[in-house]
Amino acid sequence: MARIYVASSWRNEKQQDLVSILREKGHKVYDFTRPDGEPKNNVWDDMNINHDNCATEQFADAMANPEVEKRFETHLSALTAADTCILLLPCGNSAHSEAGFMAGLGKRVFVFNYNKEVKPELMYLLYEGYTNNMDTLLQWVEEPIQGICKVCGCTEDNPCFNPKHGYCSWTDETMTLCSHCANKEIAEDPETIHCVNDDADVFK
Ligand SMILES: [Zn+2]
Ligand SMILES: [Zn+2]
Question: Which of 20, 89, 112, 148 has a CA 20 to 30 Å removed from the CA of 102?
Answer without folding.
Answer: 20
